[in-house]
Amino acid sequence: MVKNLIDRIERKKALIGVVGLGYVGLPLVREFCRAGLKVLGFDVDAAKVKALKAGRSYIEHIPSKVVKEMVAGGAFDATTDFKKLSKPDCILICVPTPLTKMRDPDMSYVEATARSVAAVLRKGQLVVLESTTYPGTTKEVMLPILEQSGLKVGRDFFLAFSPEREDPGRTDYSTKTIPKVVGGYDSKSLAAAVACYEAALDTVVPVSSCEAAEACKILENTYRCVNIALVNELKMLFDRMGIDVWEVIRAAATKPFGFTAFYPGPGLGGHCIPIDPFYLSWKARQYEMSTRFIELAGEINVSMPRYVISRLMDALNERSQSLKGSKILVLGLAYKKDVDDVRESPSLELIELLIEKGAKVDYNDPHCPRTHKMREHDLKMTSKPLSAKMLAGYDAVLISTDHTSYDYKQIVRHAQLVVDTRNATSGVKTGRSKIVKA
Question: Signal sequence: where (predicted)?
């Protein structure tokens, strides 16, 4: 049975199903279509499906032209009807894995998708989970639900895990060129998953199990989380010591070995680094282990928005002003520069903290013209246009995201006070007295 599936993939006859058409799923759709395979996309958001079927993209780095060509050429279709999951030969699941308010893993999206697949699962299908999660999820959560169909893994259907490695905004690597780690439930499942991804992506990296692939992604993001926490803590320490942490990092980075530069910020954003380490620490408790290192890093990173607000309050106080009643402009809503992705963005928490403390808050982001309802946030705000007069009308400008389109010299020139969390104003020579690093 697995030979038939691999043969269909290699002859470009297999239909690829992608569940979740967001920042992970839609780039995957593009690569499989480019490789000559047909793709059927699934999403619970009817507005997204409607837009895609009309050839419109809602993700900045996937142009509408690309979507229109895929749809017009018959390579891609999208649906909200999950009963059609019986049609694809390979089902790639790219759904959210957020945290609960208690910072425990929220598996509801994965479980709901697994139940939808199980309801129509047929012999010969490959199911791959891509959502970042703790080691053991594929076998402990996905597999029991899928086998409620009466089919047996490794005999009737195949199961694998392959962590997504998307990094919106990168130009040096893409979905196609980032090596794809794949772990299968068994050898047949691994062979099928490798064949599937090799049909569209440049490099596939097989590992021994689903758990190894799950742990791989958790390691990558925990590594980044811990190192970012380190420089965030040093930023707070060096600030008290009157030392510029950015200068220190630049100097340390001249060492050609033994040092990798990480940079501080107003908090962690994106769908991985703020979440994934907590998945691992939660899983570790099942093995009676306390991952103190990871949990401390998480505490430091989570505390950064409040640190930024305290620096802003101190800066206003030096000017005989209080935060309450002050007009604050937040520059950048996205979690990183030059993207439209606001998932887990520290800007959202900064805005909510400012409002909570009585400030009058606006934001500007050329990539995010308006906010939208999210699981934890619903700000109902629109981006304000930038002008010299407009900048001068705020008591402080808070740089949360260092988009390259911003003219920082003009911002400093016209703003009354600039609180810079990203070292974006490092090249500005005049008006330095207005700038406060945070």
Answer: none
Higher pLDDT, 169 or 428: 428
Q: pLDDT over 70 for what percent of the chain?
A: 99
pLDDT of 270 over the 70 cut: no
DSSP H helices, 123-162, are 137, 143-146
pLDDT in tens, 58-81: 999 899 999 999 999 999 999 999
CA dist 290 and 284 (Å) reads: 7
pLDDT tens string 77-119: 999 999 999 999 999 999 999 877 777 889 999 999 999 999 9
Structure-block tokens of residue 246: 């950015």
Q: Which residues on adjacent β-strands are paired with residue 128?
A: 92, 160
Q: What is the pLDDT of residue 38?
A: 98
Order of strands, sheet of 327-331, starting from the edge strand that comes earlier in the sequence: 360-364, 327-331, 396-399, 418-420, 435-437
Instruction: Give the whole-angstrom CA distance, residue 281 versus residue 293.
Output: 10
The three-class DSSP label of residue 311 is helix
Token digits of residue 56: 């419109």
Q: Is the pLDDT of residue 376 over 90?
A: no
- Kindly give the residue spans of alpha helices, DSSP state H, lying in 126-180: 137, 143-146
Give, in degrees to the nearest 5, the angle at Cα 52 between 46 and 57: 115
For the chain, domains (ranges, CATH) are 2-208 (3.40.50.720), 223-437 (3.40.50.720)
Does the structure show a pLDDT above 70 at 394? yes
Instruction: Give catalytic residues, as residue numbers.
Output: 272
Give the predicted TM-score (pTM) of the model: 0.91
